[in-house]
Specification:
Strand content: 15-25%
Largest sheet: 6 strands, mixed
Mean pLDDT: 93
Radius of gyration: 23 Å
Number of strands: 15
Distance between the termini: 73 Å
């Protein structure tokens, strides 16, 4: 009997310790404002996200001063492995038990859309800089999501439009077979057909494809003037290199890299990429501000920043400014302040965050230099046109976002 009483007392003591521990855990979470970088650390998008995304966010935190609301700003990161279920699981854990107030980056649209659903359910903030599907601010939009750097609509109405105007009026798409690729093909095909051009076909290649030969042969056989690369990262690099090996461009067909990053050009080389049109939201050599930021980034990461990584810096800084302005990490108040304040930093000038979550910002149409035009490493672009944000941002009433009234 004494043994049973002792057990009950011990059980009650453990139970009380657990109850007492709950506020302690909550207080520990309250000791810092925590930001999570959810990215691709090890696969085809690592160069445009990965350690560079983490470094860019940390640079923003450091430039902000390292504290806000009298608390340390803490940065954590994880690899979503390009799997929507893995990304959603990490996001759920971060929001529920690790005190994360904002998740950032996500260079994979399938993962971004999945995490957006978690963010909406949890009423927690998500800022997408890496993923590109325009559905993020369209039918899947959320009051807690900001789509920061670019989207497939912007790419279609900049690079796609420029190629069509230059005479590329018949297209065959080589498309990454997931949410981003299909959205980029859809949005670009709409521009092509609206301009009087034709889409002759498409080949859907699995994500992270090593051998594009069969897909490129289909594109070559179509006789389309333009082969639209609706892919990104390692897939873009591989498809451009292999198209060159097959002599596709020498045969008269043009490659249109619909989403090309400076790290891709570095991987492919100017000899192969020269003359290609592309759209960026940021270029390291644009002005004194971009050069100063990029010099610091290069010292940390070893390559010039991709536009997504510059976007991570910009988004983190704007988020922290909003937190400071409202005196709280309350997601509704912070999002309202983020929409109210213009976005101004080395990557974005007079940007405006809309109710659907899209950041309206200028984009830049570049052409890749020839080897003779380049003055040194990473000197790859010549500016063709600055495109006003209103011109490359989908009209608010056309995206199907439920938050848009009227």
């Amino acid at each position: 009997m004494k043994r049973r009483v002792r057990s009950l007392v011990l059980g009650a003591t453990i139970g009380l310790a657990g109850i007492v521990g709950l506020p302690q855990l909550a207080n520990a979470a309250d000791d810092a404002v925590k930001i999570g970088v959810l990215t691709d650390m090890s696969s085809l998008y690592a160069d445009i996200g990965g350690k560079g995304a983490v470094a860019a966010a940390q640079m923003a935190i450091d430039d902000f001063g390292g504290t806000v609301l009298g608390k340390k700003i803490e940065l954590i990161s994880a690899d979503h492995q390009n799997k929507p279920d893995v990304g959603a699981s990490i996001a759920r854990r971060w929001y529920d038990t690790e005190g994360v107030t904002m998740i950032l980056d996500i260079p994979n649209s399938g993962v971004a859309l999945s995490v957006e659903n978690v963010s909406r359910d949890k009423h927690k903030i998500l800022i997408v800089s890496g993923g590109g599907s325009s559905d993020i601010t369209g039918k899947n939009c959320s009051a807690y999501t900001a789509h920061w750097t670019y989207d497939t609509y912007a790419l279609a109405h900049s690079t796609g439009s420029a190629v069509v105007k230059a005479g590329g009026n018949s297209w065959y798409f080589l498309t990454a077979d997931y949410a981003f690729g299909h959205a980029l093909e859809r949005d670009t095909a709409a521009v092509v057909t609206a301009s009087g051009g034709k889409v002759l076909g498409e080949a859907a290649a699995p994500l992270n494809t090593a051998d594009f030969s069969s897909f490129l042969l289909q594109a070559q056989a179509s006789k389309a003037k333009v082969i639209g690369l609706a892919n990104a990262g390692g897939d873009t690099i591989n498809s451009i290199k292999q198209a060159s090996e097959f002599g596709i461009t020498k045969g008269g067909q043009q490659l249109a890299g619909l989403l090309v990053f400076i790290t891709d050009i570095h991987g492919v080389g100017l000899k192969t990429a020269q003359g290609m049109y592309l759209t960026e939201a940021f270029y390291w050599d644009a002005n004194d501000q971009t050069r100063a930021f990029s010099k610091r980034f290069m010292a940390k990461v070893g390559h010039e920043p991709a536009m997504t990584q510059a976007g991570d810096y910009s988004a983190t800084l704007h988020y922290l400014k909003a937190v400071k302005a409202v005196g709280s990490t309350d997601p509704d108040k912070v999002m309202a302040k983020m929409r109210e304040m213009p976005v101004n930093d080395m990557a974005t000038h007079n940007g405006k965050l809309r109710i659907d979550g899209r950041l309206v910002r200028d984009m830049y149409l570049y052409q890749v230099k020839t080897p003779a035009e380049s003055k040194g490493p990473w000197d790859y672009y010549k500016l063709i046109r600055t495109i006003p944000g209103d011109e490359v941002t989908r009209p608010l009433n056309q995206g199907g976002c439920p938050l848009v009234k009227g």
